[in-house]
């Protein structure tokens, strides 16, 4: 069940700004093709990398190999941030989600998320030439690590004629 956040407009918003509804923020998270995940290295330095992901059952999900830097960082410190948006000041909504990454291992969730990846990224998962051909089977079989990040706090940065900063607390 998806949690409903409290919504507030922060003081960093324009004079005529209104809070962005969580439904709009969730839509941006659901529809984005690319996300950036920020994790923390053991020595405290940040690590940022782009990745694909899906919004499924109230959380963002992404995969990684067990030996990759982000997986090693999350093993030591599960707190992370995922961001997505539009690389423009003229319009759009940028969204930042803060939470703790949980390693997903139950077969029903693995299958559901794998199906969500295929539904979202379609031809990129098609065999034999898709960019991520076979990743869906690797998710189902637990051959790659699947992480779930349920938002604890999220921000929406509205751009255009009136800039807004909305905070959602879960």
Would you kindly provide a written description of the structure presented here, covering whatever features stand out?
By secondary structure, the protein is of the alpha+beta class. It has a single domain, classed as Pnp Oxidase, Chain A (Roll), CATH 2.30.110.10. Helices cover 23% and strands 36% of the residues. It contains four helices and ten strands; from the N terminus they run βαββββαββααβββ. It has helices spanning 22-31, 69-76, 107-121, 135-140; strands spanning 6-9, 35-40, 46-51, 54-56, 59-64, 79-84, 92-104, 145-149, 153-159, 164-169. Strands 1, 2, 3, 4, 5, 6, 7, 8, 9 and 10 form a ten-stranded antiparallel sheet that branches. The protein is globular. The two termini are 13 Å apart. The mean pLDDT is 97.
What are the key terms here?
170 residues; alpha+beta; Pnp Oxidase, Chain A; 10-stranded antiparallel sheet; 4 helices; 23% helix; 36% strand; globular
The fourth-level CATH homologous superfamily is Electron Transport, Fmn-binding Protein, Chain A
- In the CATH hierarchy, the architecture is Roll
* Unreliable runs: none
CATH topology value: Pnp Oxidase, Chain A
Indicate the mean pLDDT: 97
Helix and strand pattern:
EHEEEEHEEHHEEE
- Span between N and C termini? 13 Å
What's the CATH first level?
A: Mainly Beta
> Biggest β-sheet: count, sense, barrel?
10 strands, antiparallel
Shape: globular
Radius of gyration: 17 Å
**Helix/strand/pairing class, anyone?**
alpha+beta
Query: In total, how many beta strands?
Result: 10
Total domains: 1
Strand content: 35-45%
């Amino acid at each position: 069940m998806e949690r409903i956040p409290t919504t507030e407009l922060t003081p960093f918003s324009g004079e005529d700004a209104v809070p962005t509804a969580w439904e709009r923020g969730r839509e941006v998270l659901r529809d984005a093709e690319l996300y950036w995940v920020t994790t923390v290295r053991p020595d405290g330095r940040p690590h940022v990398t782009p990745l694909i992901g899906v919004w499924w059952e109230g959380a963002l999900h992404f995969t990684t190999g067990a030996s990759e830097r982000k997986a090693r960082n999350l093993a030591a410190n599960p707190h992370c941030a995922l961001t997505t948006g539009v690389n423009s000041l003229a319009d759009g909504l940028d969204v930042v989600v803060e939470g703790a990454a949980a390693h997903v291992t139950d077969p029903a969730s693995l299958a559901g998320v794998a199906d969500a990846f295929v539904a979202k990224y379609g031809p990129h998962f098609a065999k034999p030439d898709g960019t991520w051909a076979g990743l869906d089977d690797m998710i189902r079989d637990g051959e790659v690590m699947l992480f779930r990040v349920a938002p604890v706090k999220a921000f929406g940065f509205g751009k255009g004629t009136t800039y807004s900063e909305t905070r959602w607390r879960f």
